[in-house]
Amino acid sequence: MVETHQNYSSFVRRHIGPADRDIQEMLSVLGLDSLSSLVEAVVPESILDVSDPHLPAGCSEEQALEDIRQLAMKNQVKKSLIGQGYYGTYTPAVIARNLLENPAWYTAYTPYQPEISQGRLEALFYFQTMVTELTAMDIANASLLDEGTAAAEAMAMCWKAIKQKKKRFLVARDCHPQTIDILKTRAEPLGIELGYADLNAELDWHDVFGILFQYPATDGHVRDYSALSEQAHVAGAHTVFAADLLALTLLKPPGEMGADIVIGNTQRFGVPLGMGGPHAAYMATTESLKRSMPGRLVGVSVDVAGRPAYRLALQTREQHIRREKATSNICTAQALLANIAVMYACYHGPDGLKAIAQQTHQLAVKLAQVLKARGFHVDTPFFDTVKVATGEQSADILQAAEQAGYNLRRLDEQHISIAFDETCLDADVDRLLDCFEVAGQLDKASSETFEDILPVDLLRTSTFMSQSVFHDYHSETEMMRYLRRLSDKDLALDRAMIPLGSCTMKLNAAAEMAPISWPEFSQLHPFVPASQRRGYDELIQQLETWLCACTGYVAVSLQPNAGSQGEYAGLLAIKRYHESRGEGARNVCLIPSSAHGTNPASAQMCNMKVVVVACDKQGDIDLDDLDQKLAQHGEKVAAIMITYPSTHGVFEERITEVCEKVHRVGGQVYIDGANLNALIGLAKPGQFGGDVSHLNLHKTFAIPHGGGGPGVGPVAVAKHLAPFLPGHRIWGEGDTHGVVSAAPWGSAGILPISWMYIRMMGASGLAQATRMAILNANYLAKRLEAHYPILYTGKHGFVAHECIIDIRGFKDTGVTVDDIAKRLMDFGFHAPTMSFPVAGTLMIEPTESESKTELDRFCDAMIVIREEIQQIIDGHIAHPQSALAQAPHTAEDVLADEWRRPYSRQSGAFP
């Protein structure tokens, strides 16, 4: 029968890899006759729920793009001069086309495998270099989530540095309000006392372990903090600067004022506003504090031939190693946005950045000069933000500005501020002056230069960014080729399957990505008036409704801008719920031994005591051990954190029993959404016992991983926890509880991706994707089981959406998971997840998007590798001389004049 055009153009058939004929072949291999029979054999009957989730029907890409275009048109794009950490910027077209919109960059995973990640590792290394150069600090990380959370991480670093012996952290009153709110959230459960410092008065340093300065201040004022830094150090406290990198091209850097830690946002380096994110925050610090720094850190090492090579460094600092001893739960950061920011810096170079800063500053000076001459009081000195005393005229000026196409910031009843950026022109100054009812054109000749406005002792005299990378790529041709050379060193989804277990590296469709570049979504400031974001509001409301329908919960917050932050928000909701009932003593969080490291790290950040629950031989939660822990801790139990399906790759049959046991003692059930791709359309965590879950939109709902971020980690809750979801001051001064991200909706700029995914897939498409994810994993496990032991299976011998193969049996041969991972590179594959959750194993998750052809290619590669292992077992070749031990085989290796290996060049490089 000929397919109708409607079926032919359905997005579902584009998203799901295997064709109908492939599905039947794969089911036959499993001994099954339908996907329904597979689901019945895999998903426990007690949780199976295939009822209609009341989502819109799926549609074509064209229809979804038309629908979202209608939403976009409801947003109003004005020039936002609000500042407060967010600024207008231009993304150079060469960077937009060849990086932001290039799947070779946005579909890559975190660069854990350096041999196939040298491109983005190099870019992130130079991001770190850019930050250290501009801040004049010793070392920087490879990005954090946003400026507000970076400030909270810095506070935790300061506290750790003094071994938590002091309790007070000072925050300058002129810091960004959203940063202060996040600090409140982070400080409260840890027992840290926040003090609000008036920097014009004498400060009380008693029991203070750190202080945060905003540089320039939120109202634009700049000052030299050297004396205050010295006071802090004399008192035994650390200093944290929240600094604007563009300003640091002109202003004295924090490293020359005694800073111990510098944090901030790189958004104005070419990263779109996106109504608040995603943007790459940064952190730089001193050599003495580097081991306390959160987030990824890229270093330079050498390969086996002694050639320079990049790799992740100091990983023992991170949550997946330290677990409940960690002071940060950060894993995903903002790699894609960090790469945009550093390429912006490379494209403009230090002179270009300084020119942009000077132009921005000069425009601010011109406005200030005329206003001052017309009788307005203007606060000085400043860099780009002009604070004007407007008194009773404030409302009229703000209204006139909005009508003229500008958003300004109301600082208080008597003052407004205007924050200039690189998109501003002299004509903007003229139009703004009209809003103040200042007659006449701007007299450019009368304007002071930036040297006159800024005190000499605040001007930067040190050089920065002298490295060649910041000077070699100023033409579009050179930048285009540099970006291509970097991407050619990496492996992303545009080249091959990335079968990382628990990472869900599914298709990030071009149609899903398209709207994020539209100005109606990319150019809105997070604090625009509500009348200008109606399209966003509608999209967010729909997405929240759809996510609730998919999960069985009743409320969701999109504010967390990573899965780790969703975990933290969810546990905070539980903590605050217990406190509201007079049960604040509940502080025990039960966590299975197989849990991801963010789980115990998040619990620790909420000041909960982590109690580990054992797993049995089948990989399930050991119910006897659970009973023992519940009996032991009883009234102290706050929650249990469960990943479902488990990180062992199976649907635990007694999950409802686990939930009931915890509820019986008054605890809450947190179901980690890391593996939600095995549940959508088949089971709802909010209906089978979950009280709260975080979701990973960058896994289940098609947002790309970006080489290590961005991510979005919404937190979904049952009705009784809804009042404890994160607030934000944009919704009212009294609604600042539990703020976890600087922007109200976190990384709002990429929410259209998940909206498009759900809209195009529809309820039936989402369920089919889940069934196919399970089928692909089971087909892969079946093809490999004769060659490698499958470590865990469910009740009927099947796995969930991923499987673990056991390599430990080859230990006597010398073969390790590292050998197999590196050998897979010779076949053109990224390795599965290594040694998690069980050491000496590989966890494989193919997702629904991979075709049978690609699955077979992977299985064939794994079978050849098994044959190579057998060659070692049989004594035909020693492990050190084998292709496994020598992998990966680079072009340089293969093309060398001499080949001194016992196997051929062809079998090494083209197995």
Give a verbal description of the structure.
The protein is of the alpha/beta class and 911 residues long. Among the domains are: 12-19 and 770-909, Alpha-Beta Complex (Aspartate Aminotransferase, domain 1), CATH 3.90.1150; 350-458, Aspartate Aminotransferase, domain 1. The chain is globular. Helix content is 37%, strand content 12%. The strands form 7 sheets. Strands 2-8-7-6-5-3-4 form a 7-stranded mixed beta sheet, sandwiched between helices. The chain has a 4-stranded antiparallel beta sheet with strand order 11-12-15-14, with helices on one face. A hairpin with a 6-residue loop joins strand 11 (377-378) and strand 12 (385-389).
> Kindly state the mean pLDDT as a whole number?
95
Helicity level: 25-40%
Cα gyration radius (Å): 28 Å
Query: How large a portion of the residues is in β-strands, by DSSP E?
Result: 5-15%
For this structure, what is the CATH class of the domain at 12-19 and 770-909?
Alpha Beta
The low-confidence runs, each spanning 5 or more residues with pLDDT under 50, are: 1-5
Judging by the overall fold, what is the CATH architecture of the domain at 12-19 and 770-909? Alpha-Beta Complex
Number of strands: 25
Instruction: Characterize the biggest β-sheet.
Output: 7 strands, mixed
Shape: globular
Helix/strand-derived category reads alpha/beta
Number of helices: 30
Major sheet: arrangement of strands:
2-8-7-6-5-3-4
Q: What would the CATH topology of the domain at 12-19 and 770-909 be? A: Aspartate Aminotransferase, domain 1
Alpha carbon gap, first and last residue: 42 Å
CATH superfamily of the domain at 12-19 and 770-909: Aspartate Aminotransferase, domain 1
